Each structure stands twice: as structure tokens, then as C-alpha cells.
Amino acid sequence: MLRSVVGAVAANMMLVPCLFTVYEGGGHPPLFNIGPQADPSPCLVEQAVNARLDATLAEAEARLLAQFAAITVEEVAQDFERRMEESGHTVSFPWHGATGE
Q: What is the pTM assigned to this prediction?
């Protein structure tokens, strides 16, 4: 799913101002696939650990989304262009950074 979102964004790069917009446009999928996934445990130690994990993951998600809001798609595009140039790769399809636009 993320690849299709990135492809759509690449086609309309100037319409998406930041990575948060891309994330939201992709249906805001889970950022992390870690932490308690099973039914609640009767074990009090496990409950205490899971509570800390949940709080830590929530904090990490909030910080990551704040970073997404601060990173523009244009910055990512410029980084991509630099990496393409340094690697010697070429793009076989027109996109916003292609010459002649």
C-alpha cells in the first residue's frame, strides 16, 4: 500500500507539502508493528510492562508524526535527486525533477 501512495505522490509532488500529508493520504497505517498484540494477560507483571510499552510507543508515534509534519516532500525529492546523481542511476519516466519541465 505504501508503494502505491508514494507512486501517487511522486506523480503529483507539488500537491503534497509534507510527509504527514502522505501518511494521512495513505490512511494513516500503523507506524509500529511491535508491542502487546495478544489479548490482555492476567499476569500483573506483563500488564505493567505492556502499559509502559504502550505509553512509550504512543510517545514515539507522536514524535515521529511531528517530524513527518516538518519534512516536506520537496526536501525528500531533492535528497532523491542528489542520491540519483551520486549513484549514476537515471529515471526512465518524467517526474517533477526531470529536465525540460
A: 0.58
